[in-house]
Design brief:
By secondary structure, this protein is of the alpha/beta class. The protein is built from 13 helices and 12 strands.
């Protein structure tokens, strides 16, 4: 079916589905086949083969993800980091330079700081909320600007509407990690970004039962990333494709509920006497609130905060919680809680974390689809015990 003028809810369920249905099945079958009968394809990337991400299992996802962000094309990968690293290695080569947002997911930061230099690629970090400072960081060999829609774990939002115009004016490829927002809250292609990247493990799937990534954008650039991924081998297996398609069908319902719950929880925490700071762009006093209101359709299901006391107090609070599970990752139906210093950003040195504003007692909460009232009551009892 065509997705023109359809709502996001309808696209999430139907966009890109196989036509006609396979043996009239409502659900896309799992094409558990590594290889397919040769059909005379002239290009290597077009040969039907699971590693080349072009089986029917992959193609349904590609069409649906592109439709959800109103983009031209999409590609799924074996993980979010497979999507991010392959996209960067497609757009950058030896001798190039990258501008990256100063607060990033720890794995991305580590790849930029420790791995890209081995390929002869340099990088400088910028304040994504201050476009007036970006030009001074440019070099003659700058090729890419890379940001996150909502930064991990401080929930900062940059001046997202200025990134793509800046990139075009300076001949750069613009990339954004849209994992925290999802297509429900932000659709980068509508704002001129060249590539939108996701850890589909998180909100796109939403059920904490697979690892996957996604690259979404223009036809030419996604094709180039696909060619690079075909050589690096980070393809998504057919069963994971099946699970991801299933998860996408409830994406809009899940994320909108998580948006509402996270805002209620953030307001409760901000008013609690034992909570010192709350990082959530939906709060009017958050430093990114104005920029978030300007760019986003919702503020997301992620928040972080610090309670009074030391690291031991933060740990005691976490251990007292009954509903959120103490675990890394995010974006699933279950609420998850963690200290980023021990999980998502453990790869950074203490000095790097301090420079990024990530304290060892910072607590990150991924709000699930449970009752917001139940989550608030649980947080309140845990705070009362600290």
């Amino acid at each position: 079916m065509t997705s023109t003028n359809l709502s996001l809810e309808t696209k999430a369920v139907h966009a890109g589905a196989l036509e006609p249905r396979v043996h009239r099945a409502l659900v896309t079958p799992i094409f558990q086949s590594a290889t397919f009968e040769f059909g005379g394809e002239a290009c290597y990337d077009d040969i039907r083969y699971a590693r080349l991400s072009n089986t029917p299992s992959h193609e349904v996802l590609h069409r649906r993800l592109a439709a959800l962000e109103n983009a031209d094309s999409a590609l799924v990968a074996a993980s979010g980091m497979a999507a991010i690293t392959t996209a960067l290695l497609t757009a950058l080569k030896t001798g190039d330079h990258l501008l990256a947002q100063s607060t990033l997911y720890g794995g991305t930061h580590d790849f930029i700081v420790n791995d890209l230099p081995r390929f002869g690629i340099a990088a400088d970090f910028i304040d994504a909320a201050r476009p007036d400072t970006w030009k001074s960081a440019l070099r003659k060999n700058t090729k890419v600007i890379y940001v996150e829609t909502i930064s991990n774990p401080l929930m900062g939002v940059g001046d997202l509407r200025e990134v793509a115009p800046f990139a075009r004016a300076n001949g750069l490829t613009s990339m954004i990690d849209n994992t925290f927002a999802s297509p429900v809250n932000f659709r980068p292609f509508e704002h001129g970004f060249d590539l939108s990247l996701h850890s589909a493990t998180k909100y796109l799937n939403g059920h904490s039962d697979l690892a996957a990534g996604a690259v979404i954008g223009g036809l030419k650039l996604v094709k180039e990333v696909t060619h690079r991924l075909n050589h690096l081998g980070g393809s998504l297996d057919p069963h994971a494709c099946f699970l991801l398609e299933r998860g996408l069908k409830t994406l809009v319902l899940r994320v909108r509920h998580q948006n509402e719950s996270a805002l209620r929880i953030a307001r409760m925490l901000r008013a609690h006497p034992k909570v010192e700071t709350v990082n959530y762009p939906g709060l009017e006093d958050h430093q990114s609130h104005a920029l978030a209101r300007k760019a986003l359709d919702g503020f997301g299901g992620m928040l972080s905060f610090e309670i009074a006391g030391d690291v031991a107090a933060a740990q005691r609070f976490i251990e007292r919680l009954r509903i959120p599970v103490v675990a890394p990752s995010l974006g699933g139906v279950e609420s998850l809680v963690t200290r980023p210093a021990t999980t998502s950003h453990v790869g950074l040195t203490p000095e790097q974390r301090r420079k990024a504003g990530i304290s060892d007692r910072l607590i990150r909460l991924s709000v699930g689809i449970e009752s917001a009232a139940d989550l608030i009551a649980d947080l309140e009892q845990a705070l009362g015990a600290v």
